[in-house]
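Reply to dn_fold:

You asked what the input looked like. This is it:
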Amino acid sequence: MYCVYVLENAKGKHYIGSCENLDLRLKRHNQNSVRSTKNKGPFKIIYKEEFCTVTQARRRENELKSYKGNAKFQKTIDRM
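and this is what came back:
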């Protein structure tokens, strides 16, 4: 299974990504092993969705990223 996730740090900043192993990916984010989130954590998972294929997950990731910063994004993450 592939997962799309939204992370949040203590300052309320969000990061949207996708992966196959969410536990490992979160660990890497929090160990500063991911360039885009280095020194911005610690992060917690506030939203996730599972998909059967990487294509579906990437499509949804891009959709969520297009919502980022507006009411549709907030409404989506508030569902969890």
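The beta strands are 2-9, 14-19, 43-51.
Hope that clears it up.
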